[in-house]
User: What shape does this take?
Amino acid sequence: MEYNGKVQVIEVNRSRDWLSQALRDLEHARKSMRLRDYEWAAELDKHYVISRYPNGFAEGAPWEHYTRRDAEKCVRSGERLVGWAKDIIEGKQGGGRQKA
Assistant: This one.
């Protein structure tokens, strides 16, 4: 927005929206584990791209490369991350790294 030759910056805090979506994504990952769709649970983690697209591995479909153990690890990581973010948003901690 232009204002008297200067740019006016309007800050909007969308942290609660991001947290809300993260909680839904985490619940979806848990449901995917119950359905044995382990590659879908892995999307919460660094595995996001390779768990979605067939060219992420030299051969085979992404679902062929993921196990229940992989999915459980990704969901646990997602739970810790969402819990950490929630604590910060709700003012329960200062934002430093939390021990896993």
Q: What stands out?
A: Residues 16 and 90 are 9 Å apart (CA to CA). The chain has a mean pLDDT of 82. The chain has four helices and two strands.
